[in-house]
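Give me the fold.
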Amino acid sequence: MKSYTTLFIFLIITFLFFKSVYSQTYEISGLISDFKTNKSLEFVTVKIADTAFGTTADREGKYFIKLKPGGYKLIFSYIGYFTDTAYILIEDKDISRNIFLKPSEILTESIDVFGEDPAYEIIRRAIKYKKEFKKNLNEYEYDAYSKFVIRSNQSSLTAEKKDTTADGEEKMGIYGILESETKGYYKKPDLQKQVVIAKKETANITRGFALPLIINFYDEEVDFNEFKIPTPLSDDAFDSYDYRLTGTTSIDSTLIFKISVINRSESKPQLKGTIYIADSIFSLMRVDLDNNDAARPLGIKNVNFKQKFTAFKDVKKQR
């Protein structure tokens, strides 16, 4: 009887061991750079082929993603570059893989305009696409990673090397960093839920300090609680913004319009910067926007919004 008991316990332990091994995840990481210049590329999209799972590289071009053992096809895409793929086999250890993307060579930095700027018609079509997209959208879920870098002239995190802005001005030191991973859900007509599953912040940030974690630029407004800012593709966008077509670029063979968003007022909360719109379907592909003087939440001088959008294949719908 004693030997049976021992065998039974051994089988349970063995089962738990194999279950633990099977569920183990390993990290794929690396640096994504320009093939010609070797300069790192920020916020490159990284997707697992035939799934809705993926991630985004950070400002320094570094990426990482955790996966279970098996074979994977990783797809790397970035506006202005040809998409590249990497085949990865994960067995029992982390893997490092650097990626070099080739420029697509289609780039125009100056466009002469007579009469109405072409950007206005592109924005009209983008707003129309947005309405159709939202009309047909019933529900979705997403995983998001957010990172907030707070700079202050009273910084407690002083860098050895002084950073400067595009205008040559010295940047303030980093006061604090707030990072979070969020799981989000939406279901028509207005059910929305965001769950923060992980959060990391520097010790000097007041606990509970937060900015809007997830912002959808297909919404009419960015809500900061204190005030609301109209988005560049809101139904009434032309009341708040002017637009200029400043150039074109591409992602693979798709032409992308580069459009400058100009705020019409400094006394009303508005945005300014650049958005990228895909030709033919006029979908939003990328956002790089700053707040104006009237849109300073919690006394913060500047908030920079960077987002990238990629085509999504609805795997569940095909089953």
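The CA atoms of residues 173 and 264 lie 31 Å apart.
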